[in-house]
Amino acid sequence: MIPRYTLPPMADLFSDQHRYATWVRVEILASQAQVQLGLVPPEALEDMRRAPVPDPARVAEIERERDHEVLSFLAAFCQDMPPASARWVHLGMTSYDLVDTALGHTLARGTDLVLEAAGRLRRVLAARAREHWHTVCVGRTHGVHAEPTTFGHKLASFAFAVDRCHTRLRAAREAVAVGTVSGSVGTYALIDPAVEAYVCRELGLGVESAPSQVVARDRHAQLVAAVAALGACIEQIALEMRLLQRTEVGEVEEARTGAYQGSSAMPHKRNPTTSERLCGLARILRGHAGTMLENVALWHERDLAHQSVERVILPDSLTLGHYQATRAADLIEGLRVFPDRMRANIGHTHGLVYSSAVLAELLGGGTEREKAYRAVQAAANRTAARGEEFQDTLAQEGIDIGPLRPERFLAHHDVIAARLESLVELED
Predict the structure, then answer these.
(1) Which residue among 31, 105, 157, 263 is the active-site one?
(2) pLDDT tens for residues 55-73?
(3) Cα dihedral angle (385, 389, 390, 394), rounded to 10 degrees?
C-alpha cells in the first residue's frame, strides 16, 4: 500500500525486514525442537541464534542469481555460520513450512491492529450516540424525509454494525492464525510432527488439520472478506456523513485544521474529503475480497498462483482496514454536530413528517383505513403543492389531533438506548 494510506505499525509489520526476522524465528524454533528430539546438534542452534537477520538487499541480490526467494533467504542467513552448522538449517522442511507459518503469525498480529482500531471506532460511535441520544433529526428513506429520529440513533446503528464486524474479524483471526511444518506434500515424511507442534505453540498459532504443504487459502479469503465487510460498514458511516454535510442539509461537518483549504479555485468550499476518502477505499477492499476467493482453489497439493496475489492483497487489505477504522474514529470523534439545523430541517416539509402519526391516530379512533389514508394524503398533497402548514391542511379535512412534535415518535426510544448500554458495558 502507498504510504498515504499506511499507518506506522502496519508498515513495520509488512516490511521485508520484519518478514525475514519472522522467517529466522521460525527456522530457529524448528531447529530448537529438533535439538530437543536429538536430531540437530545444540552448537548448530547456537550458531543460528548468533546469525543476524538477513539484509533484504542481500536477499534480493542473491535472488537475482537463484530466482527463488526462500533459497536466497537461506543462503543469506547461513552465510555467517560455520558450514557445519549451516547444514542443519531448514532440516526436513519445505519452503512453505517457513512461509505459511510466518505468514500466519504476521496476519494474526496485523488483524490485532485492525481489531484494536475497530474497537476504538465502536467506542467512539457509542459515546457520541449517547451524547446525541435526544438530538432530534429527520430520518430519510429513499433520500426523502420520512419520520423524526435522533442523531444518536443513527450513530448507535453504526456502532452495532462495527461490533458485528469486530466479531467477524475475531473469527477470521482464529482462522488465519495457523501454521504448518509438515514437509513437501504435508505428510511429515521428513520431519517429526512434534516440530510443528512446538513451532506453532511458541508462535501462538494453531496447526493446519490436514496440510497439503500449504495452509488452506479459504482461511485467508475469510480474513480479507471480514476486512472488506468492515470497510463496507465504514463506508456506510462515511456516506451518511457526506450526505449530512451537503449545503442543503448542513447537519454535521468534519473537523477542520487551521490549514484546511477546500478548493484551489473556490475559497469558500468546505468539502467532506475524509468521508469521501473512506468511501473510496472501501471499493478497493471489496475488489480484494473477490480476488482472494479465486485464490482458494490450488492445483493438487499446491501451486504458486496464489503467491503473487497475496503479496499485494494481504498487506494492502489489513493496511487499508487499519487506516479506515482509525480515520473513521477520528472523523466521528471530531465531528461537529448542529442540533438547531437538524430540528429546522424537520420542519422543512411544513410538518409532513408527522403524516404517519396522524394516520395512526385516526385509525386508533375508529376511522376506516382507506378513508383515513385518503384524507391524510389529500392534506399532505395540498401542503406539498402550496407550502401550507400540514396542521392547517389537516384542519381543512376536519382533522385535529393536537400539536405535532418530533417527540411523539420517540416514546419507545429507551428500548434502543438500553441495547446501546449493553454495548457500552462490553467496552468496559
Answers:
(1) 263
(2) 999 999 999 999 999 999 9
(3) -100
Quickly tell me which residue has 441495547 as its cell.
419
Residues 6+ apart with CB under 8 A from 217: 292, 295, 296, 298, 306
324-340 per-residue burial string, b: 16 or more CB within 10 A, e: under 16: bbbbbbbbbeebebbee
Supply the Cα-derived Rg of the chain in whole angstroms. Answer: 30
348 is catalytic: no
Q: Which of 15, 85, 95, 142 is catalytic?
A: 142
* pLDDT single digits (tens) 164-180: 999 999 999 999 999 99
| Residue 261 per-residue DSSP state | -
Band of the pLDDT at 408, cuts 50, 70, 90?
confident
User: CA–CA separation, 104 vs 180, rounded Å?
Assistant: 9
Helices (H), 218-354: 218-244, 273-294, 305-334, 339-346
Angstrom CA distances, 221 to 107, 225, 311, stand at 12, 6, 14
323 by DSSP, 3-state: which?
helix
pLDDT over 70 (residue 352):
yes
